[in-house]
Design goal:
Elements (H helix, E strand, L loop, with lengths): L1 E5 L1 E2 L1 H18 L4 E5 L11 H9 L4 E3 L9 H8 L18 E6 L2 E9 L14 H11 L4 E7 L3 H10 L6 E5 L9 E2 L5 E3 L4 E4 L8 H10 L13 E10 L6 E9 L11
Parallel strand pairs: 1-3, 2-11, 3-4, 6-7, 7-8, 8-10
Antiparallel strand pairs: 1-12, 5-6, 9-10, 11-12, 12-13
Bound molecules: fe (ii) ion (2 copies).
Length: about 270
């Protein structure tokens, strides 16, 4: 089973990158299912109903979120009514929607889960539970052979520890949130496909999707009001392509896709 997992879509430029590159990737490679992290899709903050429709129309099958999950209130309508979107599982209080769902891919039940890390992640007032214990409760009772997990977290050590803990029990643990693709994609010895961070989709000449001037004000002067997405210029697109054995639920390979103006070819990177 071939899964394409696309990193955080950041604002209008991210949506443009998705519409530009996803059809080309599907044309070039066999893709059974597309998962995308949409926490920054609407102007960098959450996901509204209009942009949900836009990314679905681009060919996305399933959506995960992160610390920006609830930045736009319209997401609650989506979480309540749509079967193809999840928010972080390990939230202390009760929120709309679910953090783990089962979907059909090639006639098989496949589980997709989303957790957030606890190290240096600004949850904007939300209290998070231990992601290890919370996911383990799901893993213990779930019957699905294939399980893909988005760990939305800042610290590579936390993400890799989490993945090592579930090696042999989960098919893939994909890191999101930092908006910088790491080159550590690998399959662990018990068949778990891992990358510390898949990266993001948005403006290439930006700071993680944010306009350069605004990001400098934010970091240099702690001016938190000016956090504006960069909407112009060249695009960056980041994803991973995972091949999972349908008999065993273990991964055969995880390859990176990283498209920038300096490297415009669509290729799978080992
Ligand atoms: Fe993000
Ligand atoms: Fe995030």
């Amino acid at each position: 089973m071939k899964i394409l997992f696309i990193g955080d879509i950041y604002g209008k430029a991210g949506r443009l990158a998705l519409h530009k590159y996803l059809p080309l990737i599907k044309e070039k490679y066999e893709v059974d299912f597309v998962i995308l992290n949409a926490e920054n899709t609407t102007h960098g903050r959450g996901l509204n109903i209009k942009n949900y429709a836009e990314i679905k129309n681009a060919g996305v099958d399933f959506i995960t979120l992160g610390n920006h999950a609830f930045d736009n209130n319209e997401v609650c309508t989506l979480l309540k009514n749509k079967s193809d979107i999840i928010r972080p599982l390990n939230l202390k209080d009760v929120y709309d929607g679910d953090g783990s769902k089962v979907v059909k891919i090639k006639g098989m039940d496949v589980r997709i889960s989303n957790v957030v890390g606890r190290v240096h992640v600004n949850m904007k007032g939300l209290t998070t539970l231990n992601p290890f214990d919370t996911l383990e409760d799901i893993v213990d009772f779930s019957k699905e052979k294939i399980h893909i997990v988005d760990i939305h977290a800042e610290a590579t050590g936390e993400k890799k520890s989490f993945a090592k803990y579930f090696d042999g029990r989960v098919s893939a643990v994909i890191g999101t949130h930092t908006h910088v693709q790491t080159a550590d994609n690998q399959v662990f010895k018990n068949g778990l496909a891992y990358i510390s961070d898949v990266g993001y989709c948005g403006a290439y000449d930006s700071v993680l999707g944010v306009n350069n001037g605004a990001a400098i004000l934010f970091s240099k002067d702690q001016d938190f009001k000016s956090n504006t997405p960069e909407e112009k210029g060249d695009l960056e697109f980041s994803a991973v392509y995972i091949d999972i054995d349908e008999e065993t639920g273990k991964s055969n390979s995880i390859k990176r896709i990283y498209i920038t103006p300096n490297k415009p070819e669509i290729e799978l990177i080992n």
